[in-house]
Amino acid sequence: RPHFRPKNYFAAMYASIFQPHVVSAFCNVFSYPRTSRPLPWSTRAARLRSSGAALGGSCGACQRGAAFLLLTGLPLSRRRVSSRKRDRGQRMLVTAAAAESTREVTMVLDCMCPWSFIGLRSLKLAKDSFADRLDISVNIIPFEFDPPGTYPPAGTLLQDYYAKRYGSAAQQVWEEKIPRTTGIGVGVGIKFRFDRRLVHTVEVNTALALAQRYGVSEALAEMVLSRHFELCEDPNDPEQLRAALAALGVPPGEVEASLSDPQRAAQNEERTASARRLLKGGVPSFVIRCNDGADLCASSIYAGAPTSPAYFERIFSNCLA
To answer: What is the 3-state secondary structure (H, E, C) of the chain?
Structure first.
């Protein structure tokens, strides 16, 4: 070794055979962190001389322990691994094991439903708070509540839709629903506007189905719903859909083929029929599984509706248990 110059054969034998085993055994017994290389003999001798006074006032066991550390090359300034460091290491191992397991969220949403936007935003906020502990994948299944032909091509104003659907009770329903929707929306960072138009969602649902194949449906849904509910923009605008999909890395050829497919309206009805079988009531509807287990949303211990981050955080916490 460059730092150790043995003067005789026995010193060389000690350095090459016995010393590593002695150091390793000492470290294993006393949980002492091993050094990458022992200290030079000159440094050991200097420390032994400088610490003579301190060793002279100590008990025999302390003197022998300190001398052993010096002779084996372990610096006296090193300490045992603290319990805090060991606990932190164990937590890191648990977190790494949790990251290897799978958590899958399936969401059925209606792009015309404000509660779908609230549920999507609540899920996103909960995911962000668990980003360093859980790897969560999200599958979006687009759904259209109203059958084809309900709205004209230009869409229907929200107030007109309420008047047509609720008749004489429209004003009362409006005064009950709008403040509640507004308040819960503000709680998750959504500023709803109610001068929007309701439209059929064939184009945006087609784009969401395509985005799902590339794993970016959640991001696209967030962008589209935000523009519609907060800016009153048409979610079916083909140019905006093309730009959004391109920004998310979906190949332009795939985008053009999907948005111009003559069967897209029929495919939208098929997706709606399939999604309807997954619904547990209204939209949004969620299915959350850990490691392909049972649907956690179906458990009675997670009471409440998926309209706040706290609902999803309780479920995600269970995944860490």
So the answer is: CCCCCCCCHHHHHHHHHHHHHHHHHHHHHHCCCCCCCCCCHHHHHHHHHHCHHHHHCCCHHHHHHHHHHHHHCCCCCCCCCCHHHHHHHHHHHHHHHHHHCCEEEEEEECCCCHHHHHHHHHHHHHHHHCCCCCCEEEEEEECCCCCCCCCCCCCEEHHHHHHHHHHHHHHHHHHHHHHHHHHHHHHCCCCCCCCCEECCCHHHHHHHHHHHHCCCHHHHHHHHHHHHHHHCCCCCCHHHHHHHHHHCCCCHHHHHHHHCCCCHHHHHHHHHHHHHCCCCCCCCEEEEEECCCCCHHHCCCCCCCCCCHHHHHHHHHHHHC
Q: If you average pLDDT over residues 101-112, what whole number do you get?
A: 89
**Residue type for position 152:** P
Return the pLDDT at 243: 97
The segment with the largest mean pLDDT, out of 43-57, 238-252, 279-293, is 238-252
pLDDT at 38 over 60: no
The residue among 104 and 93 whose pLDDT is bigger is: 104
- Is the pLDDT higher at 316 or at 278? 316
